[in-house]
Each structure stands twice: as C-alpha cells, then as structure tokens.
Amino acid sequence: MAEIKTKPTEISAAEFIDAVENPIRREEAKAVCAMMERVTGEPPRMWGPSIVGFGSYHYKYDSGHEGTMCRLGFSPRKAQLVLYVLTGAAGEDQQLAKLGKHKTGKSCLYINKLAEVDMAVLEDMVRDTLAYMDEKYPA
C-alpha cells in the first residue's frame, strides 16, 4: 500500500500562515485558524505541507485502507481558501445556500474571498462538522 502523504508534521502552523505570500489570504487564514481553534478547542497543526488541521481521527475503509487524518482543517491556497469541512450530513445544503459565494467538492469548500461569505454560517458549519466527526469517529 502507498504511504499516506498527508500526516502531521512538526512545522509550525503559525509560521506556515505567516509565510502565506498574499497579505489578504494570510489574514483570511489567520481568521479561519482562530475560529477553528476556538470551535474545536484544539491547537492548529500542520498536516502535510499545506493543510492546517485540528484534532485527528483514525479511519478504515472496507478496502482495508486506513490512516489518520485531521478532524477538520483548511489550506490557504493562492487561488482559493479551501476548507475541509463538508460531510454531506443533513442540513448542510441549507447552510451552503446561506453561506454566500463558494464552490464545493466532495469534502471541500472553496472560497475565493472570505469577505463574500457569512462568517456566522461558516462557524456553524464548522461546529456541525466537528459534531459529525465526534459522532462518527469518537475520540
């Protein structure tokens, strides 16, 4: 089986965020980081070279593939802010409808500008994701 590349590192999340080149994206990353830290009660930790994650859980698929990943997280990429918070849980579509300008992937929420979304809705989504993860993958 291939080695999992996205795993905890010793890189400082704060130093990673401080090194984000675009000053607006850097400030957005600081805001999302502070919110996720407040909601999770967990310190930020780097997962791989570019994901700031909070907490962790162990998963095992029916295929036998297993690993450990952050419970939720984000990555301040050049083009977009990517949040790993989508679960497909009940009510998520209604929250997305109220969020503001965004795009979605399987488990990713893509935001071009944090100013274009409702931060209260985003924080509710993060809380709901954490509750979902706590139920599905108890600590």
Q: Which structural category fits the helices and strands?
A: alpha+beta
Strand order of the largest sheet: 1-2-5-6-8-7
Q: At the first level of CATH, what is the class? A: Alpha Beta
Largest sheet: 6 strands, antiparallel
Using the 3D structure, state the CATH architecture.
Answer: Alpha-Beta Complex
N/C terminus separation: 26 Å
Could you describe the 3D structure shown?
This protein is an alpha+beta fold and 139 residues long. It has a single domain, classed as Aspartate Aminotransferase, domain 1, CATH 3.90.1150. 36% of the residues lie in helices and 22% in strands. It contains four helices and eight strands; from the N terminus they run ααββββββαββα. The protein has helices spanning 13-18, 23-40, 92-99, 119-136, and strands at residues 44-47, 51-54, 57-60, 66-69, 72-76, 81-84, 103-104, 108-111. It has a six-stranded antiparallel sheet with strand order 1-2-5-6-8-7. A two-stranded antiparallel ribbon has the order 3-4. The chain is globular and about 40 Å long. The chain starts with 12 loop residues before the first helix and ends with a helix.
